[in-house]
Specification:
- The complex is a heterodimer of chains A (about 110) and B (about 110).
- Chain A has about 110 residues and is mainly β.
- Chain A has no helices and eleven strands.
- Chain B is mainly β and about 110 residues long.
- Chain B has no helices and twelve strands.
- The chains are: A mainly beta (about 110), B mainly beta (about 110).
């Protein structure tokens, strides 16, 4: 099993629909992040969380909400999807162990809003 | 704020040759970290190499090396002996704070031709 699992892998939804993207991890990392990737813009941070009670907005949080249901689960919701939210979404964890550190990314969810 | 800029939307190289991908960053922090990530068509984000700003020596990982010019705020990636499997999108990214928030460049699509 992957360390960070995102579901669904691909999703097409209609404008105005509510949709949830799910992320789960098996490594016990406290820090989790949601990014969106757009052509020519790279990846941009939507939300991040350090534990179930610590949720923080990133640079492009408008139109999104998140829920950290447990240490292992961090979900991203679009309350009312719009076409410019069509993008590739990544969940990631961040770990620090002494002098070592790194990130683990999920495989992404490609969301299309029509 | 930190900004990361990749000015080459696309690059191409012949198999077995060397290619350099450019990245510039802007930060006022004295302690920061820089990364190159590879994203093949599978969408997975794969760490290629990382550099700590406090280290003067340029990082190397097998065929991949960086040219870290701190004063010029430049962080280029050199790929030697290019292979067909190196074909991917490459992202430069920076980390400047203790919250683990990565700032990504726009990405460079690299194509390795046989």
């Amino acid at each position: 099993d992957a360390d960070v699992t995102q579901t669904p892998r691909n999703r097409i939804t209609k404008t105005g629909k509510r949709i949830m993207l799910e992320c789960s991890q098996t490594k016990g990392h406290d820090r989790m992040y949601w990014y969106r990737q757009d052509p020519g813009l790279g990846l941009r941070l939507i939300y991040y969380s350090f534990d179930v009670k610590d949720i923080n907005k990133g640079e492009i949080s408008d139109g999104y909400s998140v829920s950290r249901q447990a240490q292992a689960k961090f979900s991203l919701s679009l309350e009312s999807a719009i076409p410019n939210q069509t993008a590739l979404y990544f969940c990631a964890t961040h770990w620090i162990t002494g002098p070592n550190y790194g990130y683990t990314f999920g495989s992404g969810t490609r969301l299309t809003v029509v | 704020a930190q900004t990361v800029t990749q000015s080459q939307p696309e690059m191409s190289v012949q198999e077995a040759e060397t290619v350099t991908l450019s990245c510039t960053y802007d930060t006022s922090e004295s302690n920061y970290y820089l990364f190159w990530y590879k994203q093949p068509p599978s969408r997975q984000m794969i760490l290629v190499i990382r550099q700590e700003a406090y280290k003067q020596q340029n990082a190397t990982e097998n065929r991949f090396s960086v040219n870290f010019q701190k004063a010029a705020k430049s962080f280029s990636l050199k790929i030697s002996d290019s292979q067909l499997g190196d074909t991917a999108m490459y992202f430069c990214a920076g980390l400047k704070d203790s919250y683990g928030k990565l700032t990504f460049g726009q990405g460079t699509i690299l194509t390795v031709h046989p």
